[in-house]
Write a structure and sequence with these properties.
Distance between the termini: 21 Å
Oligomer: single chain
Number of strands: 15
Length: 329
């Protein structure tokens, strides 16, 4: 019998009360898939925090091993694209929600969900980027497809001290954009300027009820917050601009009006990282390998161990985690 491994398991009783425990599993306990991976590194995203704390209905099958990201080495494959020893990354695809996820020594998944670890990138680097950084790159690529260039004006990033926001600030500033970083933690001003932010503004500037149209302050935005924050960002985007929306830390509602769209020609670009097609993923990870300053990535990353995951999950939903966290397994 294969050696057992530790795993975090989320369960729910008949009264729908959720519990979280560390347990031991064997490969036979894993779900169906044609590739088995030894998980070497993972991370804690905001979604993972919601899953473990139960503050939002992220988990849709019980019991569940949470964790939406991992990097590691293939130990067994029945998929033509992968062989034993290959280094791979997984982001999304319902892993950690409906299919056993990353917070275990091994994961068995569908081969088409995996992408190769980019050349020159370690598993630790990949998980420092994780879904957060990959989503930030999807946002940048969407703005570029919409014709946004650095010379047109500033770009705002909301929730800038969080995982997606931190990587977005680093990416955009590295590409030559004037980045306005919005954060609820103005104590992180020096951290954000270290990542390349040209200006740091308090979250309160974007937190109130939005006017149909506000003063034009930026040509584009990356929004991780939603709700009133996104409504304000839209109202303050200049003519012909675009905003990439990828998060809901502030709520799923959008108390806005059609004014920014029909009077200023603004585009609202929805970003989904979970089910994004493989070619888009490959393009995003290739760009991350070339466009993200690894010294800035290191500056926004902290490293922890498996036993720290549950505590970090609670901290991230309480807004106490800065940047990215790598879990070394």
């Amino acid at each position: 019998m294969a050696d057992p491994f530790k795993a975090i398991l989320i369960s729910r009783d008949e009264d729908k009360r959720q519990s979280v425990a560390v347990t031991e599993l064997a490969e036979a306990d894993l779900m169906d898939g044609d590739v088995t991976v030894a998980v070497e590194a993972t991370t804690v995203n905001y979604k993972d925090g919601l899953a473990i704390t139960g503050r939002a209905p992220v988990v849709r099958r019980f019991p569940m091993i949470p964790g939406v990201d991992f990097a590691g080495t293939v130990t067994h494959s029945n998929h033509p694209e992968w062989k034993k020893g290959d280094k791979v990354i997984l982001n999304g695809w319902g892993v950690g929600e409906v299919h056993y996820g990353a917070y275990a020594g091994k994961a068995r998944v569908k081969g088409e969900w995996l992408i190769p670890l980019p050349a020159g990138m370690s598993v630790r680097d990949a998980m420092a980027i994780g879904t957060a950084g990959y989503t930030a790159m999807l946002c940048v690529m969407a703005l570029e497809r919409n014709g946004i260039t650095p010379g047109q004006g500033p770009v705002v990033v909301t929730g800038a001290a969080g995982g997606v926001g931190s990587v977005a600030v680093a990416l955009l500033s590295g590409l030559g954009y004037h980045v306005v970083a919005s954060t609820g933690r103005t104590s992180e001003t020096e951290y954000l300027k270290g990542l390349g932010a040209a200006e740091v503004i308090a979250r309160e500037e974007l937190a109130g009820a939005a006017k149909p149209l506000g003063k034009e302050r930026w040509v584009a935005g990356v929004d991780t917050v939603g709700s009133h924050t996104l409504a304000n960002v839209l109202s303050m985007t200049s003519y012909g601009g675009a905003v990439a929306a990828c998060g809901l830390a502030g709520g799923m509602d959008l108390p806005s009006s059609v004014a920014p769209f029909i009077l200023r020609g603004i585009s609202l670009l929805g970003i989904d990282s979970v089910m994004a097609p493989k070619q888009l993923r490959l393009d995003a990870w290739r760009r991350l390998g070339t466009d993200l300053d690894m010294s800035r990535l290191a500056a926004l990353t902290t490293v922890a161990g498996f036993d720290d995951i549950i505590g970090i999950a609670h901290d991230i939903v309480d807004g106490k985690v800065r940047g990215r966290v790598v879990i070394e397994m």
